[in-house]
């Protein structure tokens, strides 16, 4: 046998191996895509109802006398007025046959607890409405919402159902009179958290996440880039610096909850910073993000061709000038990518924030970095933990919002990398 | 073992050369002293017994060489002979390498550039450098040339800077080619143009000496010819030390040539004499292409 035959004999086996490898790669990618698809379909299908809200249209006589108000009433009076009364009157007017106290109470629960505040805000913004009769869409209770969206099975026996036959009858009657409508759920984006699923919104968590990340970015980006520049460009090569380098790598691998404990012990107990506040959350998350950004920045700086440094030094630039005029701009794409990946990590981080009290139930929307607040992943955690049915869809919707922000941040990272990338 | 005898050399610089006959690439030297005329009367640079170490490896052994004012001196020798290392000592570019240690004296205008008083930034403003691979900044052509004057504050207003940039580009023979696109990126030029841009950038700082580390080795023959032509023009205003792999190039552009071998300066002399009538056996072998 000559060489050609030897090679020929082996060829089949070699190509077979290659085909097998390609097939395996294809299979693993397909599996990954399949699971991603399942995950996204599940989340989106569960979340979609949360973006719609059931409302009950009622003709309300905003009777000033019944509300104990007159044209001279100031804001405080309005705040104290019991707007529930007129909504109840309107409900009773729709179903005059309800007379028993227990039935009445059941009837009143068709609208959300938030309906009276809805009406109050409306009247406060336009006091001329006092004394007039208006057709207003009120937010429905979460049970009504569930029935309308079809997530409660009507065929279940009454005792197993969350909503009884009487209520079902009222809902059906309202629906037949066109008094039930579904609209886009703006409240989900404008409200803070609430015990009532139909009133709960994600704005507080979004702003909490925003303030927390703001603090994280403001702290970790300059410190990490400065540290990376020092370590790469200025630090002497000795045991001490090696030790620091090893420990930065170790820090990146420390479980995040440990940083939470550190934050609790140092920032809250020792420095007495406010609990549940984005400022503490941001500091804790920066501790966690620092090693990520330092490592990414160092490799970006290391990747800058030495010829660029030499060109600057050869012209008589000081080391500092060479770094800041040339090396840093050239390594910016890598540094920014690392930073945004670090920030995306911080956005999704839950464990350390649990330790510093950002897991609290907070209704108010935070106005600054020192206001108590929660963050998106913790909002997901809190809602997933709630027993009310309405929170199920809210959980998925919050996950969608969180994923949206993560995808947006990664897209920005890719865009920046493309924009700043330069060819040598 | 084969004993190489120095031809035409002074008696005291006789040396023994040991080489393995089966592999002439690994010629090793037992003892050496420089042949020829390493010293100049009007010297810009004087180096005296320079030794350079990378950690424990000695890269340069006892090199004593003067660079005359307004001369072009070519450093030639096989790869790894230390000619680039020696060149980088002259503007303290080796400072950037942590493990590199320089011993001996290097004087620029009779002042020790390795003394504590000497500021490396000031030194590099006086001794410019052009590198092997064209390395323009990823900025516009204008900004590339203007960078040096800007950091040193050489000009006081925009018009002066514009003028300096234009003059530098003209001197580098690049102005005609790029005058319409001064604000286009310097990295978009061809290799030869990039190298001339790097030369323009260097001369914009108005250095006294220009060090060139194989400036044409990454270029095609036409671009190389342009660079060589440029060097011939620049020598009227600058002292030039050029490291080159190409003996023809050394012959064309330089007045004096120094031959390095394994970290030692073997022979220095007028370029004509080195290429037509080398004194040292190793030099002869190298220029006749028997190794290197």
Write the layout of secondary structure elements.
The complex is a heterodimer of chains A (424) and B (292).
Chain A: H1 3-47, E1 52-61, H2 75-80, H3 84-94, H4 101-108, H5 115-125, E2 133-139, H6 142-148, H7 165-176, E3 180-184, H8 187-190, H9 203-234, H10 239-252, H11 256-270, H12 278-302, H13 306-314, H14 319-347, H15 351-355, H16 376-384, H17 390-420
Antiparallel strand pairs in A: 1-2, 1-3
Helix pairs in contact in A: 1-17, 9-12, 9-14, 9-16, 10-12, 11-12, 12-14, 13-14, 14-17, 16-17
Chain B: E1 17-18, E2 28-29, E3 35-36, E4 43-54, E5 57-68, E6 72-76, H1 83-89, E7 100-108, E8 111-112, H2 120-126, E9 127-130, H3 141-152, H4 158-171, H5 175-178, H6 191-204, E10 209-213, H7 221-234, E11 239-243, H8 247-253, E12 256-261, E13 264-270, H9 271-276, H10 281-287
Parallel strand pairs in B: 3-13, 6-11, 6-12, 9-10, 10-11
Antiparallel strand pairs in B: 1-2, 4-5, 4-7, 7-8, 12-13
Helix pairs in contact in B: 3-4, 3-6, 4-6, 6-7
């Amino acid at each position: 046998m000559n060489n050609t035959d030897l090679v020929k004999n082996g060829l089949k086996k070699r190509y077979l191996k290659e085909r097998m490898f390609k097939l395996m790669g294809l299979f693993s990618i397909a599996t990954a895509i399949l699971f991603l698809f399942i995950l996204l379909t599940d989340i989106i299908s569960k979340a979609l109802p949360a973006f719609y809200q059931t409302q009950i249209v009622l003709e309300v006589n905003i009777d000033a006398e019944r509300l104990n108000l007159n044209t001279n009433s100031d804001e405080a009076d309005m705040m104290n007025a019991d707007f529930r009364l007129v909504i109840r009157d309107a409900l009773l007017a729709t179903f005059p046959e309800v007379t028993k106290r227990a039935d009445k109470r059941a009837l009143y629960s068709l609208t959300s607890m938030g309906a009276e505040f809805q009406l109050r805000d409306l009247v406060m913004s336009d006091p001329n409405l006092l004394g007039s009769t208006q057709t207003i869409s009120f937010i429905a209770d979460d049970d009504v919402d569930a029935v309308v969206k079809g997530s409660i099975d009507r065929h279940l026996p009454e005792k197993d159902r969350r909503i009884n036959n009487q209520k079902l009858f009222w809902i059906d009657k309202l629906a037949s009179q066109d008094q039930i409508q579904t609209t886009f759920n703006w409240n989900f984006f404008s409200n803070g958290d609430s015990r009532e699923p139909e009133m709960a919104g994600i704005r507080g968590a979004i702003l909490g996440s925003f303030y927390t990340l703001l603090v994280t970015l403001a702290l970790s980006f300059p410190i990490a880039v400065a540290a990376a520049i020092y370590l790469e460009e200025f630090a002497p090569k000795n045991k001490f610096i090696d030790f620091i380098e090893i420990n930065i790598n170790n820090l990146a691998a420390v479980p995040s909850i440990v940083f939470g404990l550190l934050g609790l012990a140092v920032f809250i107990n020792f420095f007495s910073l406010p609990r549940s506040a984005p400022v503490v959350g941001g500091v804790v998350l920066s501790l966690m993000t620092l090693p990520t950004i330092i490592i990414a920045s160092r490799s970006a700086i290391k990747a800058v061709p030495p010829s660029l440094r030499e060109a600057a030094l050869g012209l008589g630039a000081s080391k500092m000038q060479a770094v800041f005029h040339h090396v840093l701009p050239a390594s910016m794409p890598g540094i920014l990518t690392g930073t945004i990946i670090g920030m995306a990590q911080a956005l999704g981080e839950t464990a350390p924030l649990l330790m510093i009290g950002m897991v609290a139930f907070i209704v108010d929307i935070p106005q600054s970095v020192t206001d108590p607040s929660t963050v998106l992943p913790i909002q997901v955690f809190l809602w997933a933990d709630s027993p009310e049915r309405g929170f199920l869809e809210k959980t998925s919707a919050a996950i969608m919002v969180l994923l949206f922000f993560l995808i947006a941040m990664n897209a920005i990272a890719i865009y920046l990398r493309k924009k700043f990338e330069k060819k040598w | 073992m084969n004993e190489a005898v120095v031809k035409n050399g002074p008696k005291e610089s006789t040396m023994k050369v040991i080489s393995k006959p089966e592999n002439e690439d690994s010629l090793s030297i037992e003892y050496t002293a420089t042949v020829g005329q390493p010293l100049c009367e009007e010297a810009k640079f004087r180096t005296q017994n320079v030794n350079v170490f990378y950690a424990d490896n000695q890269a340069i052994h006892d090199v004593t060489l003067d660079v005359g004012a307004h001369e072009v001196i070519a450093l030639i020798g096989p790869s790894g002979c230390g000619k680039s290392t020696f060149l980088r000592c002259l503007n303290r570019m080796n400072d950037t390498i942590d493990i590199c240690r320089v011993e001996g004296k290097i004087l620029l205008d009779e002042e020790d550039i390795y003394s504590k008083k000497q500021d490396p930034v000031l030194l590099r403003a006086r001794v410019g450098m052009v590198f092997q691979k064209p390395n323009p900044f990823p900025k516009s052509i204008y900004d590339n040339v203007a960078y040096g004057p800007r950091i040193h504050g050489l000009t006081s207003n925009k018009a002066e800077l514009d003028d300096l940039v234009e003059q530098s580009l003209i001197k580098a023979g690049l102005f005609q080619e790029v005058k319409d696109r001064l604000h286009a990126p310097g990295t978009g030029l061809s290799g030869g143009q990039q190298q001339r841009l790097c030369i323009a950038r260097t001369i914009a700082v108005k250095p006294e000496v220009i060090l060139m580390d194989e400036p044409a080795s990454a270029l095609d023959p036409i671009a190389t010819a342009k660079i060589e032509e440029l060097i011939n023009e620049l020598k009227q205003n600058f002292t030039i030390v050029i490291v080159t792999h190409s003996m023809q190039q050394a012959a064309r552009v330089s007045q004096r040539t120094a031959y390095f071998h394994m970290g030692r300066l073997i022979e220095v002399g007028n370029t004509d004499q080195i290429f037509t009538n080398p004194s040292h056996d190793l030099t002869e072998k190298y220029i006749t292409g028997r190794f290197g």
